[in-house]
Design a protein that fits this description.
11 helices, four-stranded antiparallel β-sheet, Arc Repressor Mutant, subunit A, 9 strands, Jelly Rolls
């Protein structure tokens, strides 16, 4: 009988859980500060939420409003799942410009409406939950940033009209947040500084300054860090050929990829894979 939880916690950003249960049955009451997503379930099991009992099946995702109590009904012999809890403090950076905070935000449906971007982010988080996340904290924070934005933009909630209006007026995200999401959503694209400048409607000189002041790197340096960190994930968790990893991440040839990887990681892609 076992109920095991592996957790990576960054209190300022999010906590990532991998839960495995074997020969264990109980009803567990759960309530968390922050916005929780339950995903990647290995087999269907039940939850009691908002007065109803609901099954969550493989491929589905549940979303819980902050501190919303729910009951896990554990009756299966064994199963696994992932959970990500994004902190209230982190989410408030997106909401405070509208004059409200996370505690006043409510999502209408506890069944998350999945789109390709959300599926990609959750797939990355599932991979990360099987690794030492401390070695990938850079890409973890970027995924949480993009996921937070996507949830606010795509899911029905009681603040949606303010968010849509701000997005229409170009005031929803800071230039830095726009750049981050553009990069993680287009990892097969080698964004130039000119392209990022056009997408954010800011001169490239000003964009470099404000991005470097807040992130410590220029947008292009940041783009390269993202690509190499994703390459590290793929090299450790997939059987893809190294050239295929490079092509998937938008590199025009293997030589360029190998050179940048060794510069940033200190070893070649092949050496890095073999060391894992």
């Amino acid at each position: 009988m076992a109920y095991k939880i592996d957790v990576y916690e960054n209190k300022k950003i999010a906590s990532l859980f991998y839960v495995s249960c074997k020969n264990h049955t109980e009803n567990r009451v759960a309530e968390h500060a922050g916005l929780e997503l339950l995903f990647n379930v290995s087999t269907p099991f039940s939850y009691r939420l908002r007065g109803h009992e609901e099954d969550i099946k493989p491929g589905q995702v549940f979303i819980y409003n902050g501190r919303e109590q729910h009951i896990e009904i554990l009756t299966k012999d064994s199963f696994t799942y992932n959970s990500i809890i994004i902190s209230e403090t982190y989410l408030n950076q997106f909401l405070l410009p509208f004059g409200f905070v996370f505690n006043s935000l409510e999502f209408d449906n506890f069944h998350l409406l999945l789109n390709p971007n959300i599926k990609t982010y959750l797939n990355y988080l599932s991979i990360l939950s099987q690794l030492n996340v401390n070695e990938h904290s850079f890409i973890f924070e970027l995924i949480i940033c993009a996921l937070s934005i996507e949830l606010l933009e795509s899911q029905r909630n009681n603040k949606k009209q303010w968010i849509q209006k701000a997005k229409y007026l170009g005031k929803f995200l800071s230039p830095q947040q726009k750049v981050k999401k553009l990069i993680i959503d287009n990892t097969d694209n080698q964004f130039s500084l000119d392209a990022l400048s056009r997408e954010t409607a800011i001169s490239k000189y000003h964009l470099v300054k404000i991005f470097k002041d807040s992130e410590g790197n220029s947008p292009i340096e940041f783009r390269n860090l993202v690509k190499i960190d994703l390459a590290k994930l793929l090299l450790r968790t997939s059987k893809k050929k190294i050239i295929d990893v490079a092509m998937d991440l938008g590199f025009v040839n293997l030589t360029t990829f190998n050179h940048l990887f060794k510069k940033l990681v200190g070893s070649s892609p092949r050496e890095y894979r073999q060391a894992g």
